[in-house]
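Internal QA ticket QA-208
Title: Verify multi-chain structure generation after dependency bump
Assignee: T.L.

Test input:
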Amino acid sequence: MTNTKTVLPTEHCETCPAFTQLEQMGIKVGDFDRVIALAGNPNTGKSTLFNALTGLKQHTGNWPGKTVTRAEGGFEFNKIRYKLVDLPGTYSLLSASQDEEVARDFILFGQPSCTIVVTDATSLERNLNLVMQVMEITEHVVVAVNLMDEAKRKGLEVDARSLSRDLGIPAIPITARTGDGIHTLLGAVADVIEGTIEIKPLRINGTPEFQKAVNELVPMIEQVAPGIPNARWLAIRLLDGDARVQNALTSGELADIVSRQQRVDIQFSKKMSVEGRQ
Amino acid sequence: MSAELQSKDILAKAEALRNSLSSGFRDEIVKSLYTEAEHIAKRAVKTAAEKRYDLDQKIDRLVTSPWTGLPIMLLLLTVIIWLTVSGANVVSGWIAVVLFGIGDYGRALFNQIGMPWWITGFIWDGVYLGLAWVVSVMLPPMMIFFPAFTFMEDLGYLPRVAFNLDWLFKKSGAHGKQSLTMAMGFGCNAAGVIATRVIDSPRERLIAILTNNFVPCNGRFPTLIMLATVFVAAAFPPALTSFIAAGTVVGVVLIGVFFTFLASWILSKTLLKGEASAFTLELPPYRRPNVSRILYTSIIDRTIFVLWRAMQTAAPAGAIIWIMANVSIGDSNLARATADWLNPFGLLLGLDGVILLAYIIAIPANEIVVPTMMMVYMGAGMMINGPTSNNEIFDLLVNGNGWTMLTAVNLMLFALLHNPCATTIMTIYKETKSYKWATLSVVMTLGTAFVVTFLTASFARLMGWA
Amino acid sequence: MNFTYWSVVIAVLIIATFLPRVGLIAVYKTYRTAKDREQVEDALKHLLDREQQGRHASPVSIAGTLDIPLGKATQLIENMETQELLETRGNELHLTSKGERWALHVIRAHRLWERFLADEARMPLEQVHNEAQRREHSLTELELNDLDAALGHPTRDPHGDPIPTREGTLPKVEGMPITAWQTDRPVRIVHLEDEPALAYEQILAAGLRLGQVIRILEKTQNRYLLSDGETEYKLAPAVAANVHVAALPESEMLKREAIPLVELAHDQRGEIVMLDDAVQGFTRRRFLDLGLTPGTVIYPELQNFFGDPRAYRIRGTLIALRKDQAAQIWVKSI
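Actual output:
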């Protein structure tokens, strides 16, 4: 089943590295260097991108909730091996339905090196809501603006640079169906992971009273779990009364994340992948 | 420990802060997210024209309108089934000729080299014949049905079906997305049960799980198709055969849908009491399906997968039947004796003992019901090759084994309503994590099947039809 | 033979009677304990209720509320006194702090159950109270906290009454005398002052009730003219000062100028004003996540042949909603 055909870059751009190489590794993800999560609204072509990257043939039915569990696959890009985890499509990470919990837990506890949020260029407004929620959990986010061909057909002109500027993270226009832009996307992912480009994720502050409450909680959380990267988001979830986060806090799971992160990342990701396959 | 104390402090603090905030603060968070998203999107997207959803809208109007929506749905279902029936009929014959030919050759070869009769029998008349039957009966309908179905799925039509039928589900106290899971059930009920994860409310999800079996899966379609072709359609001129057969199968599917609504309604009035919960359903834009992907998905992921599963149970089932047919008890053999023993109960339901025996052997997979039945009918030791044409099947069943129209109709009903296969039962257990619901799924469907077939049989006898 | 038969029967009977946990006696004991607990808790609720009204319960009032003979009530009170749940001062009964904490626990349980039944089980609002009444006695503190978390820490029950917090404080409804109320915006009566009695009687005689929504029609030196939309009420300013009111929740105000989404005609566009307060918990989250936030433009695009559900275009996506959901989204036509 392993598919090792090499896909050559299908486009030329000034910012792309000259020799990008993508090798699809299908489900053979024995060893890998980095874990990438694939999040996004339903029907944005997440599975299509997943298939394009891994060479797997995950079915992509056009109905909401098609992917109910996580799928995993691997690929190699510029000599670095990646494991790709396709999360269920969700509108949000807040309402704790089963699929949202799977997606949220993986981004938070699975600690992927980078999360790609796939968005639909024809309805960005709805999709950006999720992007910003993911950005609250982790700074390592790249937005893939998918379905650029459909946007063009509908007479929409999408300026990914403007998006990128406003969000403070890379936003790459792609067409997963044809493979357009995928190399640029992977380049951006590598840049984000290696820290070679500056990211300044946009923060939504909400009302002043809410902001004040968040600011009171953040130092307390940082005290319990020193070095935690997303104390702000945790504070928001605690204010909201999120039972899962409350439990993670009391059980010490949060503090664990930090220590795990300081150990070798790969070990943990492997464990997750085993647990996730049950 | 101090860390323990600390986290408790944080929780207390968070609660205090939460209470100090105005009650709508959650709404405010989401609102500010969306407001920001709106600004960013507005800056990034330039719209050339205002008419954005033109074609989609026209199609949607058509497939959901009061006048055309329901007929289109029925028409699509009929067309898919007609394609399956008429196409499968032709191909099935060819495959049967080839596979049974190989069987003849193999048997002859074994005899030539002087194999003991029981090895030849066990391998060629048991295991091989079971496999050959399953492949020739199942492969053709699946190869047509799955791609057609996957095409509708990838196009984005399924959510429209859910939209059209939601009202009925609401009246039954169920969720509109249940029709999505039913659609998956056409392929495989176990897949349908897993697909119920799209339903958020636990109550409605359970209803969807328990009733999914009333949708005939691909393992049961061949039974329906064969009976519809051999019995119902045989009464009409040959030109109409495939239409009548397809119409009959559609009718059976509609009966299944009716029982789905009925069971959902009864469940939500009794065991799973409650009101219909919130229902939101996205109707995604239509997407042009990718033909090569459809073929790949439907042939590799679905057809081969399902067929392989069927073959795994068909081989041992074939062996068991052969053994049963060759263990003699007095004048008779074990298969006959068991079938005779089951016969009175079978007759009560308008079926017979052999059919019930076939269903017992076919618990691991419904696909092997017809092959099992045929093999028992064809009897012990003297197993000749299977009938390759509809006339031969008709002859074997009616003249050889006393079938009537009632047997055919009741077998279709029984195939539609009876208990889920072992895989589906296991899946139900895994999804609900409860023996109770898994057991109920069996008792409920089997009970329905017994009651319905008993009633139709009694009615038919009362009217003097059978 | 006969002897064996009878000894077996007797043995079975004995076992059935004395078996721990499932035996008849054990079951009866559990039942008694539960009944006793229920009675104590109902009495505690009654005491707290009275204290919140600024009055005190008496043995007679307990007997009346719990519908038990006076003798039983006295026994119950003695019992509760030994458990340090209440103190007797003359004929007045006072809750101890332990008693109050317990009472608040029961009220919290009751109102959280109501919230659960209304939001998650989607029971009709008029049945919610009775069902909650049955369930309120069964949960421990910890289980209650879990329920609270699962519901998203609601602050009010479906009837608008505040839910006590985990620490056992009951948020107070703030009100002010209607005479201090300046605008003509509608207000809700939150408290009727019963001192002096004469003024209180006049208020009651006029027909004003707690929870009523009224509006000041006219205010002169001699009288206040109030209206609830149907009836008009006249009060002297001194009497009116004893009617305490609070501003309507903002949602009530907004609702007055909006229509539910179901009523939006097929060719109309609407702008979301708010989600109804009745939409809580998971459903509210879902709605917000779909982008149904105030200010969003929404319009019906598809209708199915039964007329229910309808599909609406929201932020570029087509989303189907059932009628009862669309009835809880308030919009103004634009």
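Spot checks passed. The mean pLDDT of chain B is 84.
Status: verified.
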